[in-house]
Amino acid sequence: MRQAFRVGILYSTAGPYWAMGRDCRDGAELAIAEINDDASLPVSIEPVFGDPAGEPKRYLEEARAMLRDAGCRQIVGTITSLARKEVIPLVEKHDGLLWYVCNYEGFEANENVIYTGACPNQHLIPLFEQLLPGRGRRAYLLGANYVWGWEMNRLARELLAQSGGEVLGERYLPLEDTEVERIVADIEARRPDLVLNNLIGPSSYAFLKAFAALGARDPAFRPENCPVVSCDLTECELGEIGPSAVGQYSTASYFDSLDLPENRTFKQKVAGRFGASRRVSAFFEGAYTAVRTLAEAAAAAGTDDPVAVRSILHAGTYATPHGVLRIDPRTNHAALPFHLGRINADGGFDVVASRPAIAADPYLTGPRGSIDRPALRVVS
Fold it and tell me: Taking the complete model, does pTM exceed 0.90, yes or no?
């Protein structure tokens, strides 16, 4: 008889970052359907869905209901670091396991969290190593006004310092703020070589549209001359931006366009459930991979007890659409490939640079890479 495990699926499909949450939930639901339809697996999953609509306090309420009332030991969920940090103490209290699938700012490792999203040595550092030598080192930094934006821009300042770079400006916006005109005017006046975009949701979309309008007025700000680079922009959001995003860059451990046998098989599954036109983002693939991996580890352990599941995870490898997945027992982080994608006119990404799986270094204790050089001048 198959064991049934309750798993919390905690994503916002409404609110400022609804597109990311929708893709995560769809990816999780695809994995759950596959698992439950596979009679050869000794486990099945009973999902317990929560939808906080992007409100931080509701994440805590939904997670409490999952862990305390529904009996979940595992939660796959949260998009922002604000929500993740809100939920972690509760997961610790109930000795549960949170699966976090999104890129984040690093400087965290927790025995109650499995991090299958990339940290800075897997996204920002290789991005700068790839772009700074050829594009220039005079940067303008944008960020959402919470820990993701603060920490990413702090690290960007350090990396630019090591490369002899220059920060021409640094600005922040609340998650739902779309008043970007003064920022765009400031960028026009300061004329950087590139813009690092750590905005989220509507703020990011409004900025990319306004920046495209600037590029139409002044060729110096077209993508080939002054690119906007992101570490969190994916296929599921491009429809909200339209053609304004074409030519700009983002990093991910997964893109829909990856030419891998595993990804071709995966996309056939997606097409069978959602239609051939559905593009897959790193959010969709990440949630799918987390649920599949959780189920395989629980099946091998014979239980969904977090201690047993962690032990199995640390000892094994798992097939995913982006390649083989390994979880480091020291940090609970996944080793992940790096891909740099350029947005094309078809609403997807062309992969222009890749690296094989990079071991996670969430506290950046190792070398920073080939962009290390002295000196930085920050222009106020």
Answer: yes
